[in-house]
Amino acid sequence: MSQTEKRPEDAAAAARRARHGVLPKPVRPADTVEEGPAATADPAKDALNPDEWPVRTCR
């Protein structure tokens, strides 16, 4: 085999480089964080009077 002839491995390597040769762009850590409320407000929870439960449960 002479220097000008390409081996099948070289062709496969060239095809791999053409398909997968470019790395993806790096992702900044700031782009991976989404800020928002931890949980939605529960109106039923806020409607309870915290001072009323001893009256109902400690008769």
Can you offer a commentary on this structure?
By secondary structure, the chain is mostly helical. Helix content is 37%, strand content 0%. The protein is built from three helices and no strands. The radius of gyration is 33 Å and the shape is rod-shaped. The model has no long low-confidence stretch (mean pLDDT 77).
Q: What's the SSE blueprint?
A:
Elements lengths: L7 H13 L22 H4 L6 H5 L2
Morphology: rod-shaped
Give start-end ranges of low-pLDDT stretches.
none
Which class do the helix and strand fractions yield? mainly alpha
Oligomerization state? single chain
Mean pLDDT: 77
Distance between the termini: 100 Å
Largest sheet: none
> Could you tell me the strand content as a percent range?
under 5%
Number of strands: 0
**Taking Cα atoms only, what radius of gyration do you get, to the nearest Å?**
33 Å
**N to C succession of SSEs:** HHH
What is the tally of helical segments? 3
